[in-house]
């Protein structure tokens, strides 16, 4: 199957222009899975809760969700992209998975970054893994994490332990370390990873963020199959066999999952004064 990602520079609060831009970029793209950045239709640096609220989408419908559903149904690709999701009084930093049968599944970002904590509710759906199919109807398992989740090895691990073959990773990265870390996340979990980051700069009223591009696709041995530059707007793609992730035998005597020793690992939250972990 072919996995692809879109790296581009969304403009703040210009939802329809951003959707048009992605639509033009993916026109004619033949891929089974297309991953778009975090908050790809709205931009990232929300100036206020009312700005965020004005672009948050109710479950199941709204411009970004409709866009993902339309492109999935009309091309047969599965699309993943980030959007602000409203549920009752809360707004989550979410990513939707749109499959060609019209289904929409959602992941809500667990590890909120910096000022996101002032605006979004922390994700409450765990790390779900979805059963999806490529365009030849071959099944594989798709996990989602969003941007800063990369900093917590537990995120990719939770997805891998539930059988994710491919982790789609919509991002708005500002820290330089993630492109170095993702090959390790792929290697230590023996999964494919597809990190779709954005480019450009955006302003809060009192500060500016610069996004680092460098989107990348990694294979289960930690090799980078495709990588983008810092500023370029482009599509990346790679042909993969997702089931390669299932061969977790490291030596005759070692299996990446079966050799885990959870009884030896610290569990749960560390006490605030416990520095041992
Ligand atoms: C981030 O999590 N958007 C840095």
Descriptive account of the structure:
- By secondary structure, the protein is of the alpha/beta class.
- It is built from 6 helices and 17 strands.
- The protein has helices at 15-26, 49-55, 63-75, 116-119, 153-161, 178-189; strands at 2-7, 33-35, 57-58, 78-87, 90-98, 104-108, 129-133, 139-144, 166-170, 192-196, 201-204, 207-210, 216-218, 224-227, 234-239, 249-251, 254-255.
- The strands form 4 sheets. Strands 1, 2, 3, 4, 5, 6 and 15 form a 7-stranded mixed β-sheet that branches. A 6-stranded mixed β-sheet has the order 7-8-9-10-13-14, covered by helices on one side.
- The longest helix is centred in the N-terminal third of the chain and has 13 residues, at 63-75.
- The radius of gyration is 18 Å and the shape is globular.
- The chain starts with a strand and ends in a 22-residue tail after the last strand.
- The model has no long low-confidence stretch (mean pLDDT 95).
- Acetamide (ACM) binds at residues 38, 113, 147-148, 172-174.
